[in-house]
Structure prediction request, 727 residues.
Amino acid sequence: MRITHTLLAVLAALSLAAGASEPPAAAAPAAAAAAAAAAPKALSSTADHSKFKELQQSFKSGPEVTKACLSCHTEAARQIHKTKHWTWEFVNPENKQKLGKKHVVNNFCTATPSNEKFCASCHVGYGMENAKTFDYTSETNVDCLVCHDTTGAYKKLPGLAGHPTYKDIEFPAKSGKIAKAVDLPKVAQNVGKTSRATCGACHFYGGGGDAVKHGDLDSSLKMPAKYLDVHMDAKGLNFSCATCHATQGHNIPGSRYTPTGKAEDTAHMRGKENKGNPATCQSCHGAAPHKAKERLNTHTDKIACQTCHVPQYARGNNPTKMSWDWSTAGKLGPEGKRMTIKDASGHHDKYDSNKGNFTYEGDVVPEYAWLNGKVRYTLLGDPVNTQGVTRINEYYGSASDGQSRIWPLKVFRGKQPYDLDTKSLLVPHTAVGYGEKDDSGYWANYKWDAALKAGAAAAGQPFSGKFDFVATEMSWPITHMVAPKADALTCTQCHAKDGRLHAIKGVYIPRRDANGMLDLVGWLLAAATLLGVGIHGGLRVYLGRKG
Amino acid sequence: MLKIVGSFVAGIAFTGVLAWNMAGGLMFHEHLSPFGVEETVARIQQNIQVAGKGWALAGLRFPAKAVQADGGNALPVIMVEACSTKYSGPILNEDSVKYLSILMPCKISVYKKNDGKTYIGAMNAGLMGQMFGPLVGEIMKEVAADQAKFIIMDPSKPTPQIIYPKAAGGGAGGGGGSGC
Prediction:
């Protein structure tokens, strides 16, 4: 009893002491804030850039910041110079096609020639007004901040040739909205590793807006939930883009210009062995990842992981653009001004005078095709198919080449201008630089002739003056937005008559490829067996009774 | 005699199994929509609004969002709810069939399947109504006729926009419409 009393007394004393030590409720937030302010910054890096004297300057321009960065990171710019993020150029080793943003045409905004001041908001450099004349040897024109900003305040606005704004400006022009000047010292002193936000600043917004281009990359991946991507799940594994796109010397692996159709079959340690593209599922998971359901491992030789594990794309509540018809652009509103018309959701335009008609879709079921990693683009000067659909890019692959897997694709369909004489695609000059007056820009005057003439001149291609619009398709392999395994495709979604893989040729898929005659023979055999068993059993009963 | 009784019982059993298997398909019907999920919903809402006879939008629900919120994935499903007091009133005033209030408001479901196409699913109100006596049968017959008009997709009409109920709170919810 005495012990109990003693314990109770001690507990009471402790609780009183605890109560006495608590600050008044109202004072708690202030105290916490003061403590947080006094506490040193919790950095995962070994360097606090805000303490570097080189960065404690009142920078007036991006190149000034780069100069400071290069005083320590001496090789960074030269590394960047070798990447397609800088050169906008990539030569396909397979067919020697010159690709990269400097050369390719797509069926979204089409191409960069004549539009660089606008497009260069996604160039890792400053001052790209013309991709042909830009100084690719300049080190200080490399933009370190666009990839290494951690504040989220660094924005490169379209029309400024790759520069952020250094003063407060009205943006878009005549909108009444003010874009604040970037606080360069603050951004420079807070640089760090790349993140989903920095990569996403361009890759989530490709094609002219959030979720427009890729379908499996949009702003919902900045802080995704597990349902959207098991690897990037912000409360789970929290992968950054660079976790998979493991970078060496600023060269980032994983590109649709040289996709890996059939990855190495064994998991490997990144950075320790060079066994191919680290941005593949197999580089971590190997080729036999299904421990509980080994039957599934027999599929991995022919089916890309993404086919089952990315059941739909554009799942993050951001519908992706699925078609774009340039041929209807240029219709103006009642006052002769640009007009937009919303789609059924009320959230996206289905028509814009600047661009024509669009369609958007969320939770899109992919199309599927064999991919072996080889791809050919329709470039400026290449002939188009005026009687059918021109493929902007054509991925190769087949069931029999031993190099292919079945991949999910976003197939983007559009109509875009081509020259009636040369029968090749044309580049419209659409956007003009910020604050500039340029009558040839389509978005300024809605004159196709002038826009196509200016675009052709910038691209160095002939323009006959006669043009029309041709139907095009462009494919985008789907690889992000990996769903939890419980949401992967089930067997019957492919093994069915009209299942997901109904269009895949060259491989026998049970149930999909059922043969009516074979099935009938099978059922007849089963029926005959049953009948035989019945007769046999009946005879035994009958003869048994008869004795 | 045994053969006759046996055959009779076997016939009843066969009919029972057949009815059991077919009942689900008879109670509900499904149609392919030429439009995407959102446009289909918007067009159904527009049809309901011009239907007259007291019909009004009663809500919009997003059951697949609840699956997302719980960490999973489901293809989009949007349920359009509509109600007409002209039809609901007599049923709600009759004690013997008041339990049918659990079927209110009328729902039309719009969803995407794994083939990437959009479908419209609805209850076969006419057939179901016949199971609950003449009062309900007559009302549901008219409801079924109206429902058939709700799901007419006329591509010649311009695309309307979805009407989101003011009380919609995101997630799976989204009731709070008017009408009933």
In short: Chain A has two domains: 53-269+279-492, 515-547.
